[in-house]
Design brief:
four-stranded antiparallel beta sheet, three-stranded mixed beta sheet, alpha+beta, globular, Rieske Iron-sulfur Protein, GMP Synthetase, Chain A, domain 3, Rieske_2Fe-2S, 13 strands
């Protein structure tokens, strides 16, 4: 099991450009207030220039049917259009599209989500969602749903400041609303649940039915692909308390090579007697497969 290479590809480089620009601005402060002010003014001039260019492009796209839609669905262009208030889709449409993109992943963990309303108030928009699912016995599955929805909404609509979770109906299998309340941050990769997203571009080469092990930021995990859907779990069997290295996938069942226990990977890793594998959120972020891992205790303090 090899650690992930650290060389980012072009799809992952641009999404960290803001951090790199801020680092450069901070370093300019060492040259004194005048140098720092000139650097900030330079960035503002560049941003205003490409913003004016984007505005011109969107105006010209009106003469070409479908072009504005193509621009809006490109991850990089969509993020720039959002910065300048030029995105052709309103908040509700962007949130609904984002939820549609993660709905297959939610289903793999026995959950679903419905967009109830988007309420605009001073300071930002609040999204009201109804969560349902069948993984109440697996708290880590509820966390995967929270992270998946929070990340999708944050990326598609940075103006959203909060998510209000409402139980769709009083059923026994509804995921507890309080476990899914999340404050959506408008920047950064760290979420209120204390997890960080790590790009794993190698997952794109995983074939249907294959299982692969990865070591990401010191955490051993197992990834299997069922059809077009990649699913990630912590490399640990809850029955024999050992590694799952060498496990094979038969349809949707992942068998522990040591104790032989079968776990259903499309039902949040459910096993016999209420046992569960520990699922980890795995989503496409800006076109790159990425996994969310809990931050070490004390990180960011």
């Amino acid at each position: 099991m090899a650690d992930r290479p650290e060389t980012p590809d072009s799809e992952t480089q641009w999404r960290t450009a803001g951090d790199r620009i801020q680092t450069l601005l901070d370093s300019c402060a060492a040259g004194g207030p005048a140098a720092h002010e000139r650097a900030q003014r330079l960035v503002r001039e560049v941003v205003e220039l490409y913003g004016a260019g984007l505005q011109r492009i969107m105006a010209l796209s009106a003469d070409t049917p479908g072009l504005a839609e193509r621009l809006a669905t490109d991850d990089l262009l969509a993020s720039l259009l959002l910065v300048h208030g030029l995105h052709p889709h309103d908040t509700r449409r962007r949130v609904a599209d984002a939820l549609d993109r993660v709905r297959p992943y939610l289903g793999s963990h026995g959950g679903d989500v419905e967009l109830l309303d988007v309420v605009f108030q001073q300071g930002g928009a609040t999204v009201r969602l109804a969560f349902q699912g069948s993984c109440k016995s697996c708290p880590s599955s509820a966390v995967t749903l929270e992270l998946a929805v929070e990340d999708a909404v944050r990326a598609a609509a940075p103006e959203v400041c909060a998510i209000e979770a409402v139980a769709a109906q009083p059923a026994a299998d509804v995921i507890p609303t309080e476990s899914l309340l999340a404050h959506v941050h408008s920047n950064g990769d760290n979420h209120s649940s204390g997890s960080t997203w790590h790009p794993v571009p190698d997952l794109a080469a995983l074939e249907p039915g294959e299982v692969a092990g990865f070591l990401i930021s010191g955490t051993a995990l197992l990834v299997c692909r069922v059809g077009d859907l990649p699913l990630a779990y912590r490399d640990h069997c809850p029955v024999c308390d050992d590694s799952l290295a060498g496990a094979r996938l038969r349809e949707t069942l992942l068998g522990c090579p040591r104790c032989g226990t079968q776990f259903d990977v499309v039902r949040a890793g459910a096993g016999p007697g209420g046992t569960h594998l520990e699922p980890l959120p795995l989503l496409l972020r800006d076109g790159v497969p990425s996994v969310a891992l809990p931050e070490p205790m004390g990180a960011g303090a």
